[in-house]
């Protein structure tokens, strides 16, 4: 009798379907790196790289990235150096692109970057409304520095955006920037993630249109200033193609901002 029971149990075990493994989440971060300077004001790109490495993110949107910009970052190409140190792919989207300081020197550039562990299959530097900090008596006008990167993520391609919104107290430029970004995000179907330093907190009226189309991966913690945050102005947001598994702000003073890192689950389409 015991033998018969054992045989039946073995047959049932062999016939059971293996449990499906839970799909791995997509880990996405946003980090204003302060051009490689920490909260202490000291430039240390190796410290910046270590802080990004500790996020264990698949994709990272970076703001305040210098590429041969000036002495504050030793005229180094931060985008390329960080990608090399972290063994990631990179796309750099300059906001400002200036003539070199001397003939034969590289152009001076400042802007945003996207780092990705996945291959980058397409990338564009798009324009949104900006109010230049370099031109006297400037007026708001379209300018580059809105990075769009399509990555070959597990589960299929994903469009990832990195942005840095206007810092001034007057919200009018940010309001225009939000409208510009939504016009881009709405033009194509498919999963999208928007990362960035929005220079406004989640309840700011100028950000309200974002929350119709995007979910805020809320870390329930401040991000600025890094040492003792009093407000949350750094974001990872996602289209309804994703569910938010977790989000956190990471305590580090490698910049004057804290990074936000979120785990996103790709949602399965609901069959009719």
TrEMBL record:
<keyword id="KW-0732">Signal</keyword>
<dbReference type="Pfam" id="PF03372">
    <property type="entry name" value="Exo_endo_phos"/>
</dbReference>
<keyword id="KW-0255">Endonuclease</keyword>
<dbReference type="InterPro" id="IPR005135">
    <property type="entry name" value="Endo/exonuclease/phosphatase"/>
</dbReference>
<feature type="signal peptide">
    <location>
        <begin position="1"/>
        <end position="21"/>
    </location>
</feature>
<protein>
    <submittedName>
        <fullName>Endonuclease/exonuclease/phosphatase family protein</fullName>
    </submittedName>
</protein>
<dbReference type="InterPro" id="IPR036691">
    <property type="entry name" value="Endo/exonu/phosph_ase_sf"/>
</dbReference>
<keyword id="KW-0378">Hydrolase</keyword>
<keyword id="KW-0540">Nuclease</keyword>
<feature type="domain" description="Endonuclease/exonuclease/phosphatase">
    <location>
        <begin position="29"/>
        <end position="257"/>
    </location>
</feature>
<dbReference type="GO" id="GO:0004519">
    <property type="term" value="F:endonuclease activity"/>
</dbReference>
<dbReference type="InterPro" id="IPR051916">
    <property type="entry name" value="GPI-anchor_lipid_remodeler"/>
</dbReference>
């Amino acid at each position: 009798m015991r033998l018969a029971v054992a045989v039946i149990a073995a047959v049932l075990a062999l016939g059971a379907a293996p449990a499906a493994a839970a799909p791995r989440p997509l880990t996405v971060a946003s980090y204003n790196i302060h051009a490689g300077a920490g909260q202490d004001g000291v430039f240390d790109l190796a410290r910046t790289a270590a802080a990004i490495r500790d996020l264990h993110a698949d994709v990272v949107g970076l703001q305040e990235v210098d590429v041969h910009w000036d002495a504050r970052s030793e005229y180094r190409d931060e985008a390329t150096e960080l990608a090399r140190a972290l063994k990631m792919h990179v796309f750099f989207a300059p906001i400002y692109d200036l003539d070199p300081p001397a003939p034969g020197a590289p152009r001076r550039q400042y802007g945003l970057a996207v780092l990705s562990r996945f291959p980058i299959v397409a990338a564009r530097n798009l324009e949104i409304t900006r109010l230049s900090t370099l031109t006297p008596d400037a007026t708001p006008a379209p300018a580059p520095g809105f990075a769009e990167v399509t990555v070959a993520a597990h589960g299929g391609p994903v469009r990832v955006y990195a942005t840095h919104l206007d810092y001034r107290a007057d919200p009018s430029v940010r309001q225009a920037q939000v409208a510009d970004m939504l016009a881009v995000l709405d033009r194509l179907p498919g999963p999208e993630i928007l990362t960035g330093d929005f220079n406004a907190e989640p309840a700011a009226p100028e950000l309200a249109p974002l929350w119709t189309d995007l979910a805020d991966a809320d870390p329930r913690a401040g991000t600025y200033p890094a040492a003792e945050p009093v407000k949350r102005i750094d974001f990872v947001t996602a289209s309804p193609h994703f569910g938010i598994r977790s989000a956190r702000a990471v305590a580090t003073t490698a910049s004057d901002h804290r990074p936000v890192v979120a785990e996103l689950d790709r949602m399965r389409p609901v069959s009719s």
